[in-house]
Write a structure and sequence with these properties.
The chain contains 3 helices and no strands. It has 113 residues and is mostly helical. It has one domain. α1 runs antiparallel to α2 and α2 crosses α3. The protein is extended and about 60 Å long.
């Protein structure tokens, strides 16, 4: 067998191994990006909430603080749930409400004049 044929046959399992771990890494990266995006959305919404609720900065700063505290409580709890239920099942189950509310929001926006 030539060197070229030997290296080609060794490349297939390496590609399969890479494809095997690439999907979980991408899911983790997308999940981390969504968490950062959610925090940014809260920070961007603060001036609007100040106008809507007619409050000043000292009162509205609690929104960001409480959001981050809630996130700090949910992360360890979700790890515990992942151990109990399985991380794949937990990921799918927890994204269902988010998907449904996104679809409902899109449908509601289409009904606006």
């Amino acid at each position: 067998m030539s060197d070229r044929a030997a290296s080609a046959s060794l490349g297939a399992p390496a590609q399969a191994t890479m494809a095997h771990w690439m999907a979980p890494v991408l899911v983790a990266l997308i999940g981390a990006f969504m968490s950062i995006l959610d925090t940014s959305i809260v920070n961007v919404a603060i001036p609007t909430m100040m106008n809507v609720f007619n409050v000043d900065t000292s009162e509205i700063q609690w929104v960001s603080t409480i959001y981050l505290l809630a996130l700090g409580v949910v992360v360890p709890f979700s790890a515990w749930l992942g151990d109990r239920l399985g991380f794949k099942r937990l990921y799918i189950v927890l994204h269902q409400p988010r998907l449904r509310t996104g679809v409902l929001s899109a449908l509601q926006l289409q009904r606006l004049p």
